[in-house]
Design goal:
Elements: H1 3-21, H2 30-36, H3 41-57, H4 63-66, H5 104-113, H6 117-120, H7 125-140
């Protein structure tokens, strides 16, 4: 998604937060988003991508999505690496940063690999969603 569209979506989210609190347009929105425990738009996108990866890795997603992601442990030449014991995913190389980096398998793998191991190792989807939102919220509002 382009920066302009992200900016427009963020402004809608900011307007909704101001509406909830009956705040003026000139009031700063970060404290409002923090109190509502709402993630900013890029973090919301990252949240959805990571939930999709979790479902793919745990057999709760369609096979055509799950087949587009590969663990490093599943790659022949990388089985002996230390990273092969974790759920780290292979990030496919891309030729174009504008389109290729936004492809679902690439963006999802990068978002997943950026998470803490403790978040990725959640035992259930509901626990994962809760820990993921806490992780993203803390990293966004520090």
């Amino acid at each position: 998604m382009s920066g302009q569209l992200l900016s427009r979506l963020q402004s809608v989210l900011n307007a909704a937060a101001r509406l909830v609190f009956s705040a003026r347009k000139s009031d700063h929105v970060s404290p409002l988003l923090h109190e509502l425990h709402w993630l900013r738009v890029p973090d919301r996108i990252r949240f959805q991508l990571c939930v999709l990866v979790y479902r793919c890795l745990n057999g709760a997603a369609p096979t055509y999505l799950a087949d587009s992601l590969r663990r490093i442990a599943d790659v022949d030449g990388r089985r002996r690496l230390c990273s092969s014991v974790s759920d780290t995913l292979v990030v496919a190389p891309t030729n174009r940063s504008t389109l290729g980096d936004r492809a679902s398998p690439v963006a999802a793998s990068r978002a997943w690999n950026g998470l803490l191991f403790s978040v990725r190792a959640a035992s259930s989807l509901s626990t994962f969603r809760q820990e993921l939102k806490t992780f993203l919220f803390r990293s966004s509002f520090q």
